[in-house]
Fold each of these.
Amino acid sequence: MIGLGTYAYFWQHSDRAPEPLSLIGAFEDTRAQGVDLFQICDYAPLERMSDDEVRDAAAAARDLGLTIELGTKGIVPAHLSRFLELAAIFDARLVRSMLYGPDSRPTLDEAETWLRDSIRSYEAAGVTLALETYEQVPTAELVGIIERVGSPNLGICLDPANVVAQLENPKTCVELTAALTKNIHVKDFAFARQPGWVGFTYSGAAMGTGLHDYAQLLAAVQPRERGINEIVEHWLPWQDDAETTIRTEREWTRTALDYLRSTTS
């Protein structure tokens, strides 16, 4: 299933927007674009909401016919337990996270222990925990932890854009993680020369215009055949003013949706 996530609304949610978009507003916009899946990922207000506010947001998603996934950072068992509670409220079947959180940087041995402590509860609830590929942990080490824990409810959230900062090749990341992938973050990326030819900027690009070989990912992972959801997000730099930035963000979303839909036929 193709979905949108909060990173597709990064600037629309931000306090730099003239009228920041609420979470329910993002739900409504997602549905208006003919999309049935939304991933609430690294959305800080979610953890500050009261239980009543969370239930209201979940009810709004259900009324709109949206399937919800959740995303956070860190694998401290108490934190993962809280997100399992939130998943129950939203009827979410997947939680995306990362090994490192804002206040925790476990060793690989600690990470394995913490995941073993948490994953049985996820199995019992029928919820998948998907750990994202990113630059702070080499992909091979992340794969090794997941394989050693050995749970069908533990896998990879595949985002090959992140691992370039680890000097990994995105295509190699895809190949290493294909069998374990449970979720995909979809965005294109590219390098651009800095003014004066003194280095590069690595940033987002409109889907289909950058370096991401998405056809290779589709062939290796086979997400449509395996029922793996593809979540659109962006790395869009600020475009000098709010109006231009938000307009570009929305254009990138439409481009990404058109691109993904064109590959399903």
Note: Residues 183 and 228 are 6 Å apart (CA to CA).
Amino acid sequence: MNIPAWTKPALYGAVSGAVLLAIVGFMWGGWVTAGSAQDLATKKSAADVVVALTPYCVERSRTDPARVTVLAELEAARSTAKRAVIEKAGWATPLGSESPNRALATACITALEAA
């Protein structure tokens, strides 16, 4: 079987073009692997949950009978210990969850300090 002389350069060109296209696509074209896409989706959904639950945390702070005590503790605490105060008060524990959400506690502190 005779293979035409132009076949070898054409195959090299096709392979080189595919490799170059993949490099450009992943480096500058915004292409991602399935694992990277899953990681991005997980981080985005966790951030969205925190944004959605921040008003819930602020409302819990308003209706808590121990509000004055907790807010005094929060005011007296160092910036690194404020999250623990919110978590201990239960304001950063979403309904149906047994443990507080750290990111929610941080967002709640920011919202409470802004108010």
Note: The chain has one domain: 8-114.
Amino acid sequence: MVTLILGLALFLGTHSVRIFADDWRTAQRARHGEKMWKLGYTLISLIGFGLIIWGFGMAQRDALVLWNPPMAMRHISALLTLIAFILLAATYVPRNSIKASLHHPMVLGVSVWAFAHLLANGTLADLILFSSFLVWAILSYLAARNRDRVAGTRYPSGTMGGTLAAVGAGVAAWVLFAFWLHGLLIGVKPIP
């Protein structure tokens, strides 16, 4: 469990600098240069991500079961992860109404993904992993919206084509992941 927690601290810690120390981040980027900042950020994030994977795998071997979610939670979780994939796609597809109205769909997608996994899983490792990401995503979204408000950021309005492309890309990615990649990479088939 220690490895999982260390990985979360490194990964989410690097991703929280802008939430808690945006001025320090700006100063460090100016001091060390954009490339060095991104290199260090990426390196620490990758180490943290690797430790999360390794630590979660170890924690699941001797999993402490806190509760056994009802089977219906798997279906609800599948629907919620579909929404999360659409939000993730909306981050990258230009001129879509989802991003135009929500402004930061990626962190909202992470929060929906984490919440969905909390509903469908009941071990201590699941609780630590997914609740950490859920709390981080909520704080990140609130901080980003506050930065937008202070800066007077305006997002371009979405188009029907951009919105349909975002939804289509999200659904396609979800189908690929839910029916094939999740079982291959994670070892659990959410939709048999």
Note: The mean pLDDT is 94.
Amino acid sequence: MDSKEAIIEATITLINEKGESLNEITVREICKKANVGLGLVNYHFGNKDKLIELCVERMISGIVDHFHSIQEKTDRLAPFEKLDYLGNMTLTFLFDHYAISKISILSDLSSPEKNDNTHRTYKAYLPLVSACRPDWDKTVVKRKTCCLIAAMQQAFLRCEVILQTQGIDLSVQETRSAFHTQILHDILEI
């Protein structure tokens, strides 16, 4: 394995170990785990923050890919039930992996790219929204899918504000699920 990939793997391991405490990860710790010299982090990635951002994107990307395989397991569900189930699964992942999810979403919002994780999530949700509303044309489906993804990201990023302004505690699974279901009804108009 080359030094760049060793650094990435070591960083992902540390991210998984530290959880919410990403700021505690040091370059020295990364290099020790990867068994490489200290200067290689800056050489390959520019700085620790860029390295962590890359690793988070890779981790989230794996989850988005896994999402497609889970879709197949929900084939027996009606379209709305499937969208509700997968949306709740997505939100649960976001809240369970708060630090990496926040980095991923904020990175996609600040530097959008054609195949970033937000776009890949959008592409995964697009056929589900279409199946829920076969009466909508493609343009409406695309717009409503964007609205759904944005609403989910905002609910996650602004969960404290939602608690303060609406009294809805999205850190509680049942409350979050009911909130998500209502957003689906609002956006899908069903």
Note: Residues 56-188 form one domain.
